[in-house]
Design goal:
Length: 194
């Protein structure tokens, strides 16, 4: 599988935005705001974020970016919603083939919520595509620490390790990815781990 195809596979899987939304919803329950004005702003930002996510599913990336910007502006006091909006805006830029803007948005998401694994995984995918295998490995390591159940992170990390000539480590990660449900890992296991 070519790296560009792999990159789009990664982004497509990450765009199971329902997973991102679930992660965000869980964090929001832990960080509730006491003022009603702030709570209304959070709800409004979340509504706009959901609308932007729907546009992503329709491949209306420029329109989604506009809504992500609105959500970010409204969610100034809600770092979790803002981090999700920045990450998803980065995905929109990636689909528009603007990796510079994608990276800027991933990094902003990381600044706002250091426990959100998706921006690390997404930045790692870009680094992997750019053949910055060590940088990619750092990002996938961080993402796997934050979410040890994300099969795609282990698959990606395996690819970075393989590129760095760590065949044993790559096979371990691909095996973990497969065990977690990422069936595409079986091909690499069969090709390189026997």
């Amino acid at each position: 599988m070519k790296i560009n195809q792999f990159l789009y596979l990664i982004v497509g899987l990450c765009l199971s935005i329902f997973a991102c939304q679930t992660e965000t919803s869980q964090k929001q329950h832990r960080q509730q705001d006491s003022t009603s004005q702030s709570a209304k702003a959070t709800l409004n930002a979340r509504k706009i974020l959901d609308q932007a996510n729907e546009l992503m599913g329709k491949q209306a990336y420029k329109e989604a970016i506009e809504l992500y910007n609105q959500s970010i502006e409204i969610a100034q006091n809600d770092s979790i919603n803002a981090a999700t909006a920045y990450h998803n805006k980065g995905l929109a830029f990636l689909y528009l083939k603007d990796t510079v803007q994608a990276l800027k948005n991933y990094e902003k998401a990381m600044q706002l919520d250091k426990t959100y694994h998706s921006p690390y995984s997404s930045r790692g995918a870009i680094r992997l595509d750019r053949k910055d295998f060590r940088g990619a490995l750092e990002d996938f390591n961080r993402a796997s620490e934050l979410n040890p159940q994300d099969e795609l992170v282990f698959y990606q990390r395996g690819n970075a390790k393989f590129a760095l000539k760590d065949k044993k480590g790559a096979c371990e990660d691909w095996t973990k990815a497969f065990a977690l449900g990422f069936s595409n890992a079986k091909y690499l296991i069969d090709q390189h781990c026997k």
